[in-house]
Prior knowledge:
CATH class of the largest domain: Alpha Beta
Low-confidence stretches: 76-85, 583-593
Number of strands: 16
Distance between the termini: 121 Å
CATH architecture of the largest domain: 3-Layer(aba) Sandwich
CATH superfamily of the largest domain: DD-peptidase/beta-lactamase superfamily
Mean pLDDT: 87
Largest sheet: 5 strands, mixed
Amino acid sequence: MIRTPLRPLATIMSARAAGQDPDLIEAENTKARLVALHEQILVTTRRRLILLSAMFLVAFSVIGLQMVALAASDPVEPRSNASMAKILANRADILDRNGRVLATNIDTFALYAHPHQIIDKTGAAQELARIFPDLDEAKLTKQFLGPQKFIWVKGHISPEEKQAVHDIGEPGLLFGPREMRLYPNEAVAAHILGGTTFGEQGTHAAEVVGVAGVEKRFDNFLRDPAEGGKPLELSIDLTVQAALEEVLAGGMMVMNAKGASAVLMDARTGEIAAMASLPDFDPNNRPQVLTDGAQDDSPLFNRAVQGMYELGSAFKIFTTAQAMELNLVNANTKIDTRGPLKWGKFKIRDFRNYGPSLTTKKVIVKSSNIGTARIAMMIGGSRQKAFLESLGFLEPTPIELIEGPTGRPQFPKNWSDISTMTISYGHGISTSPVHLAAAYATITNGGTKVVPTLLKRTDLTPGPRVVSEAVSARSRDMLRAVVTEGTASFGEVPGYYVGGKTGTADKPKPTGGYYEDKVIATFASVFPTHDPKYVLILSLDEPEDRTGPKARRTAGWTAVPVAAEVVRRVAPLLGMPPDIDPGAQAGVTLSGN
């Protein structure tokens, strides 16, 4: 900016020459400068006032809008972490096939504390320890006296416990609403349901998440708001499940067994009507996972799904069925049973001497290891392996439990001739009772493959064919004869025409070899054999019948009578009255090629 002098020399000289007062020139220039400065200051001030007014207007508008939004919203407690997602507290029910509740939710409360608001910290800890004996009074006192401003005391409490805490009168003891998972039938179907725990927690809600069983397998479905609380419908029948568990527990005690399992499956759809594993637990108070020792000693271990066992002679029916399907034998073909059967350094023996030969049917009825091994050698290892694979024996359990993939069968990588022989009678391959149930259903239902499921099915489309209807009928006839003439005579239940096969397998030692006095006793059965409706697989772990002078461990003395009692109890519950006179169809025996 060019600044004009107040006393310009040329102007002053001209004024003096004209006889004018030079001081007036300076005064006028000063006045003009002050007027220009005033105008500049006035413009700047106006601009600043306008800008400041606009800023105030925007600020008050924002505050006003925020106040309107707060006034229109529901009051909630501030979250400690504003970035956390909203807790999904709702969880759908689980129902049995008839709509009866297996798992649901109840409203309860959690107890938490603001220690800085507790007046008598020591007294409050003492009273809480009296109300909740599982709380450590000394630890609680230390927490209340410490610097923490928030403490979870109990995850959920009963109405009576809430009132007792309320009566303490401490303002720092507060209650948060909770939705807690409830299993109204307690331990019934415990291994199927699994259990839940609390996930993300806030003072006004808690996330309930599955930890095992179908609760874990279908966790996303049960928690998905998009499903609108649609319940999960299972295939099991609560009444049948309770009856099966009651009989199984009694049989386990009478037979002095370490554990037991049972699978009751629809022979045509694969739907599991009941499944149990003992010992069990109450999912309302789920025990802790074992940190040492064998996991199958834990009540959490599902023997029916996770247990991989050599199931013994129950496998023999698969060998004869395949041989009949391949037209290698028929029911009356004579099989060499002279023994022992030597293969290299190995010797295969029978439980007793059955003579020089038995028919194929009698091989099953008498349960000849030698006869079954000779039939297996007719089949060959590669064809045997492929057949067992078609029955699902070489894949993890496909059942809808989170534990399903852990039920992985064990079999030799090198499927040698000796493996072919031993696997034919259930040794050298370890599978679960659920695997066995699905395979028995496939062989006996007319020959179409069954895949086990815990979900209620409406689609009754049969699976791919594994054996012909004729072979299926002959196999059922053999299984019926095992009950009427063979090792499972205690399995007869009047009016239900039970057929089945016993299996007694020595338990392997962890260090190698087998125990001489510990077995897995199994009875794989189907009823009624002339029109198969259900398959029942029942296994006892280390059973002993001590009613005689000598302990008896074989399945015919242990698992079979327990299974017969299960059929007697559950068949009427399944809508199956006893058939006193089934007609000629019950006695049909199909034989030949």
